[in-house]
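Before a colleague's protein record goes any further, I have to sign it off. My question to you is simply how this chain folds and whether the tokens agree. I do not need a full report, just your reasoning and any doubts. This is what I was given:
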Amino acid sequence: FSPGAPPDNSSTLAASKTLPPKSLGPPPLGPVNPALRTESVRPTVEEPSEDCSVPADAILIPLREALDACRPTVQKQVCDDIGRRLMVLGDTWAQGKLSAPVRKRMNVLVQELQQHHWDTADEIHRSLMVDYVNEVSQWLVGIKRLIAEMRNLPTVVLAEPRDDGTKTMPDQE
């Protein structure tokens, strides 16, 4: 848990499933133990087999669209760096070098971005960095920057998808 961040439903739910047995006493306060607990519990929680075969394009296309939305307001050098890192992600994914939990979390992260849930997307990014640093270190920095830049975009640019939980009832406007 990050200090000061309001708990959202997914982290609250994950926390309730990751509490240590009572014989260990209260969990230590600090950043050391949460990573160990999420590592041991999350893969079984977040790994339905059908989601492990997410095509790379399901992740990369929305990320590239997000990057394109940032281009008018973000420095070219920053956008180019994010673009390069997205290419590395695509190559790594295509070569089958990403584990199922990483692919699954990236799928969830992209869905959260599309719904403009910046804090949740950032939380998923952090969990990937902590749990799978060797697998994600070359490209995840670009995702982090993309989340930050999208968060700063004017709402006019973001209004286009308008997905605020009402997608099951499109005629509700």
Q: What stands out?
A: The domain at 56-152 is CATH 1.20.940.10 (RNA Binding Protein, Prp18; Chain A). Residues 10-22, 30-51, 157-173 have pLDDT under 50 and may be disordered. The two ends are 36 Å apart (CA to CA). The longest helix spans residues 76-94.
